[in-house]
Amino acid sequence: MAIWDDFITEQDRQVIEASGFGAFHGVGQRPVLVVVDVTYGMTGDDPQAGLLESIARWRTSCGPYAWAAIPHLQRLIDGFRQRRLPVVYTKGLPRRADGFGKRNWRSSRLGEIAPVNGRTGQDIVDEVAPQESDIVIEKPGPSAFFSTPMVAYLTALGADSVVVCGSSTSGCVRATVVDAFSSNYGVVVAEEATFDRAESSHAIALFDIESRYGDVMPVDDILSEVRKLPADLFADRIGQPLGS
Amino acid sequence: MERVWDRYLSDRDREHLAVSPYRPIGFGVRPALILVDNYRGVLGDEPLPLLESVKDWPMSTGMDGWEAIRHIQVILAAARRAAIPIVHVTALIGEFSIPMGASVRSIKRRKAARESVLDPETAARRARDFDPLPELAIQPGEFLIEKPAPSAFFSTPLIGHLTSLGVDTLIVVGESTSGCIRATVVDGASYRFHVIVPEECTYDRHEAPHAINLFDMDRKYADVLPLERVLDWMTTLDPDEAKQ
Fold first, then answer.
1. CA distance B66 to A8
2. Of A41, A44, A157, A182, which one has the fewest beta carbons inside 10 Å?
């Protein structure tokens, strides 16, 4: 039973089946993990806080949904690191106090940019902290590809596919998936390692991705495909000191 | 080795080069041949010296263009033998396209000027400016991209094509060296491709800009090499590998 089954209608189901949408491709030959916006702004800083409580302090928090995803994110990231596959993190560009460049986000709480307990909303969560061999990209829009070096870095890596996880499923994950697809990369989304603050948006975003752009797979299935790949696929590209 | 730009460099340039090490980019393993803007208007109907040719063909590159086309035919044949991807890039033109840098008012003005001034013979030539050259006719399995700006990458699907082909090296040929070739080479390098420019396969209507732009590209973004070197390398490629 898929997570979106509770949200789609009987007719939706029949249409998908009849149209042939959702054919399976799986993880590619040279996959890169993209961890989208697992930042305190999206998780809040208190794993015990309820969703509304967390949102009271962090207006974009996904609260308990985020913290439920963190162990899956850790497993997924560890699995990629063990095979020395590249891990790319994204986070939002730092906000300016004068509001310049803030775009037209539809929120009445855009002015809240002060750190909470020493964290800014753009800091990556400690539990999934990037390592030196990883790549961190600051992005100005929802998609990891929009006005960033993402395509250049994937080209430099010789990547053929991305495994996307993080948040929010219906916002930055989805935008990143669509652009990765448009750029001709294979796309997999790690189901339990993505999260959103709205249950219905989360489910329908995954449904849309599964039917059009990529495969929504459980973390375990992704890891078992990843473990079949040759070790050190990217050793000549990243993670080794120059001249070694 | 004497280079085409040597006689255009200043004494200080030469002294600076003597103390600045040259670092070649090198070939990758999966090249594509990118042919940029080879169409009737830059050659004219017959090989004539530039100042003759330009009377009937304002975009003409004169004899330099005709000579370069012969070299481009050689590398095109070599690319077909090696079964590497071939991308023909030409201008996006047509009833509904907007010339670069044009406001609505200037388009109307230019259209009016064209219709009032051109005699039928000249108008017929202008209509053939962007006709493809039979010497470089596209074959089945090759790609055609129409671009709206100097760079072959700008607002075109080129990067997506190259990604899905798994290309890591661009061999860029065509015209003009100082315009579309340079813009394409800069973007290609920015996307982290190895960029190779076979010197005899590029051409321009201006001698000094041709030479200095080759110099710039060779110092910064690409390896500008004698055609023979590139052909030698292409014979080492495995056509069966390229077909995958």
1. 63
2. A182
Q: Flag whether A238 is in a domain.
A: no
Is A1 within a domain? no
Structure ipTM: 0.82
Tens digits of per-residue pLDDT, A182-210? Answer: 999 999 999 999 999 999 999 999 999 99
**Closest residue in chain A to residue B156, using alpha carbons only:** A183
What CATH number did the domain enclosing A81 receive?
A: 3.40.50.850
pLDDT digits (tens, 9 = 90+) for A64-94: 999 999 999 999 999 999 999 999 999 999 8
Give the structural domain span for A72.
Answer: 26-227
Residue A185 is assigned to a structural domain of this protein: yes
Is A184 within 8 Å of B164 when comparing Cβ atoms?
A: yes
With contacts defined as CB-CB under 8 Å, which chain A residues touch B159? 151, 155, 183
Q: What is the pLDDT of residues A2-24, one digit of tens each?
A: 899 999 999 988 888 888 887 88
As a three-state string, the secondary structure of chain B is CCCCCHHHCCHHHHHHHHCCCCCCCCCCCCEEEEEECCEHHHHCCCCCCHHHHHHHCCCCCHHHHHHHHHHHHHHHHHHHHHCCCEEEEEECCCCCCCCCCCCHHHHHHHHHHHHHHCCHHHHHHHHCCCCECHHHCCCCCCEEEEECCCCCCCCCCHHHHHHHHCCCEEEEEEECHHHHHHHHHHHHHHCCCEEEEEHHHEECCCHHHHHHHHHHHHHHCCEEECHHHHHHHHHCCCHHHHHC
- β-pair partners for A89: A35, A136
Q: Which of residues 144-203 of A touch B (CB under 8 A)?
A: 151-156, 158, 160, 182-185
Of B201, B142, B148, the C-alpha closest to B176 is B201
Enter the pTM of the model: 0.88
Count structural domains, chain A.
1
